[in-house]
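Running log. JK asked me to keep both predictions on one page so they can be read side by side. First protein, sequence followed by its tokens:
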Amino acid sequence: MNKDAVQHERGPRNSTLRRQMALYFQDSEPSPPIPSVLDLALPKISSTTSSPPRIEAPSQLPPPPFVYPPTAFPKIPLTPPSILLANTETVCESAARLLFMNVKWAKNVPAFTSLSIKDQMLLIEESWGELFVLGAAQFLPPMELTQLLCAAATRDMHKARSIVPEITNFQETLFKLRNLQLDAHEYACLRAIVLFKTAVDSNSNNSSGDSESSGRSVRDVAAVAALQDHTQLTLSKYISAQHPTQPFRFGKLLLLLPALRAISTDTIEELFFRDTIGHIPIERIICDMYKSNEL
């Protein structure tokens, strides 16, 4: 379909616009099978499991790629930064594909899909912003977010001014992640750690309007906690084996997690998605994408 119709249309009802955005993602040029940087080996556990799964010794950890089935992903154009800075539309298009890729990644993690659909929907809603920041650091070229701020200012100057401090934090967090030079395995583990969270904002509005996640609390806390613990321990063992001269590396990675959470999803929406979705809550679009049989 015509991408301009997605990026600039403001008239249709919310459901129509969400469908247009979904079709835009589906019409994007397919890429080769899923790269190893998105793979994650986590055991399937039933919703009644309360004890953490067995952890393999570092020498037994499978190197990337890991073991769940390959999936086709839209390509994220790694355009040189100078071109990206000159074309905010290209940046936002890459961001949209990154969002789609994150949702598709979660749907292909067996341990995640073994949870109840309510927990899946809630966790993807709660973690999409952190997953986006990790993906931006891993896949997108370095960019000055102030370029996107200028575009936001043309829509709402007051809103643009209010998010300046968060944009600074966003830029610093991206710099710290890139400076640590994380490998594929480390990024995969961080993704799982932020996805499998047991503490959610119970006071948050259910912006998706989806009854599956309206309770705002994880149903199977024990299963989710076991998965997060397993991932943290796996990451710790992996770092000890691969980076023996960096005893504080594991701690540094975990200390970055609050910084990811501190970047509000409102700021991400304003910078990367406002021109595409208007004022439709992006969580609603994410839930629609996640539940789509086409994903």
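And the second, directly underneath as requested:
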Amino acid sequence: MMLDYKTLVISLGVSALCLLLTLFGTWFARRGDGFLLSWVIGMAFLVPGIFSYSYYTESPSGALGALCFVLVLIGFAIIYAAAFQFRTGRSPVPHVMSIAPPAVLMTAPFMLIGYDGIGFVALNIFSAFMLFGTAAEYAKARRESPGALTGMAILYGATGLSFVLCALVLIHEGQWVLGHAPTNWAEDINTGLSIAGMTGVGALSLMVHQGRITARHRREAMTDALTGLNNRRALFERHERDTFSHEMAVIVFDIDRFKTVNDQYGHAAGDRVICALADELKDAVGVSTAARLGGEEFAAVLMTAAPGYAEWLAERIRRNFAERDMQAAGLSFRVTVSAGIAYGLAAGRNFDGMLSAADSALYEAKRNGRNRTMVAAPDASPPVATRTTA
């Protein structure tokens, strides 16, 4: 038995409602993703728009048609803005405000004055525009999840194309005044594609969302919570397989007398000191990877280091850090840092060897008075000081 047009529209509404409930449940379980909430809001407009349109197919009226148009167009505008928010992380509100009002004002009035055919043409054109825009946003973001986001872009684009077909059929047949919902082959294709697209987009969206959660957990596992730098695990995962030549270097930093800072000024002040050194490493030019190894110890990896550059960089960080005025309970104080440097070898040196040599140089810097930089010699001889503080 062939399904009539109203049944198809109701099926579309049920699919949209199921997607709405699924998305809301997903967002409610983890409320950190704003784009999901925006999408839920868009669907909350679209679902009643679809169901009211199914009623319009049986009892057409200008007021009901205008209401359908308003709900559907606002829903599509918010879904388009949610895709923009997904890609950029920026607020969707400007997108919605720039698209929805013009779309509503250029479609709904035609339903109220009796030119419903023109209204349907305008509705299809604006809907296609927003669906194409949504497809473009996901296509631009496809590097994050190539398969899923490309699939979403294709589904949105295909659905948008079906709206274009609906508009072209009405224009070709010159149907400016209908008095009822349009019924033709393009409308059937549009409804079928919308049902399939709704289901496919829902599944792919959940896949992308789960991928984002997994990636976020991995970032959290690899990031030091206090400083935002890589942690020790991330440092080793990134460099444990590298072979370091003589033009590569590792610098290890350790804050001098850090326990005294905590004892005298409190742990909150100690955290600010740690963050201050982290900021110096973030701003350093030429550092491939900066990481907090634990406590007050940090490491910087230089994958390209001309002769003398690692010493110059370590000294620059040491001096800048020593000149910072720290504040605690109305008191001002300064803290120093020591550094140990290890260069790779012409024959190559693994990361464990680099870190061990840099640690040895750091130990010598501490033993020789702190607040200085030492370089590990490439052989077994003791590390040598490159510069010391006054």
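Observation for JK regarding the second prediction: The mean pLDDT is 90.
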